[in-house]
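Worked example 3 (structure in, sequence out).
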């Protein structure tokens, strides 16, 4: 779908995309900082074997009301927003972060990922539920470079629920010398 079509879906609150065997991206290349689906609250991507990314752009993408994202059986998906083809090798780590600095989801509360390669996330300060399961090649959830400061760290300040299941290659959730603080954790 083109960015102009996506922008026209002003009242869309839930988007479910599934069982599309040849889909490689949901939104084709766009320019500028974009707010697509301005009222979108829930996004489900299911059984998309060739999906590599949701959107290809050089700039940022905003989802101001997005609260829940579920990604299930998208084995080639490494990032939510893919930088354009002019990406330099120095920024390759940024490209492989599922939710990187190109995605702004200030209200995201639930992130559930199953059967994907990566979820290394950044800036999900309102996240309350994080579920990762059946990701057989995932080695880490949060990259070491994302550490800031020393002492006690609050990585996800509102996180209440963390589920990690069937992750045979997971070496660590977050490798740090600092103590992690999960003040609101209710379920682990």
């Amino acid at each position: 779908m083109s960015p102009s079509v996506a922008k026209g879906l002003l009242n869309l609150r839930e988007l479910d995309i599934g069982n599309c065997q040849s889909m490689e991206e949901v939104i084709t290349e766009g320019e500028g900082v974009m707010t697509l689906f301005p009222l979108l609250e829930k996004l489900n991507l299911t059984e998309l074997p060739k999906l590599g990314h949701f959107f290809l752009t050089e700039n940022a993408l905003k989802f101001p009301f997005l609260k829940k994202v579920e990604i299930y059986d998208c084995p080639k998906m490494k990032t939510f927003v893919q930088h354009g083809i002019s990406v330099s090798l120095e920024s390759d780590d940024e490209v492989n972060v599922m939710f990187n600095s190109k995605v702004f989801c200030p209200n995201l509360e639930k992130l559930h990922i199953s059967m994907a390669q990566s979820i290394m996330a950044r800036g999900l300060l309102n996240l309350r539920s994080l579920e990762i399961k059946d990701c057989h090649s995932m080695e880490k959830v949060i990259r070491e470079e994302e550490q800031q400061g020393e002492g006690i760290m609050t990585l996800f300040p509102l996180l209440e629920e963390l589920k990690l299941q069937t992750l045979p290659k997971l070496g660590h959730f977050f490798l740090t010398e600092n103590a992690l603080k999960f003040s609101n954790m209710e379920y682990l």
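Notes: The radius of gyration is 16 Å. The first helix runs from residue 3 to 7.
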